[in-house]
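Example 9 (inverse folding). The structure is encoded as follows.
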């Protein structure tokens, strides 16, 4: 799946498969640490809900985290596509949600999502 995603991103170029996917995860980890850990951690709810397992989880369902009503009622599962839209513009993708942070660069989003996937056992 990582490989497929990497190939799709690199349409028209050579596809390096698993090696490239691993680099995406490493770069995504650095981006995640730099940009997300002000509010999120892997194992504990902080300003935002914990991130371990978020890929493949239904939105708004981490026990003990006080979500906005909008995200609690959103009903979608976090996938590559939904995480990409969320990270690009959370307030537009889920109107009424309250994550005050976005990632403007599509490549950064894709690497961060690869990292989230890797820490979710997917
Ligand atoms: C300024 C604080 C802040 C930053 C920085 C932040 N978030 Fe969030 N995040 C939140 C809050 C608050 C929520 C809950 C929003 C709600 O309930 O509407 C949230 C929710 C989420 C969710 C939904 C989780 C679930 O259980 O449904 C994901 C995914 C997420 N954030 C990813 C990220 C990523 C990836 C980054 C870094 C690129 C990031 N966030 C940076 C505050 C933040």
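The amino acid assigned to each position is listed next.
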């Amino acid at each position: 799946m990582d490989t497929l995603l990497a190939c799709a991103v690199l349409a028209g170029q050579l596809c390096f498969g698993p090696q490239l996917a691993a680099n995406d995860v490493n770069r995504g980890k650095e981006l995640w640490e730099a940009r997300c850990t002000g509010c999120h951690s892997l194992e504990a709810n902080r300003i935002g809900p914990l991130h371990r397992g978020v890929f493949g989880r239904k939105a708004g369902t981490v026990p003990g985290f006080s979500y906005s009503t909008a995200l609690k009622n959103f009903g979608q599962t976090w996938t590559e596509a939904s995480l990409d839209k969320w990270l690009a513009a959370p307030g537009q993708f889920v109107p009424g949600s309250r994550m005050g942070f976005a990632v403007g660069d599509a490549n950064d989003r894709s690497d961060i999502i690869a990292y989230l996937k890797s820490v979710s056992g997917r």
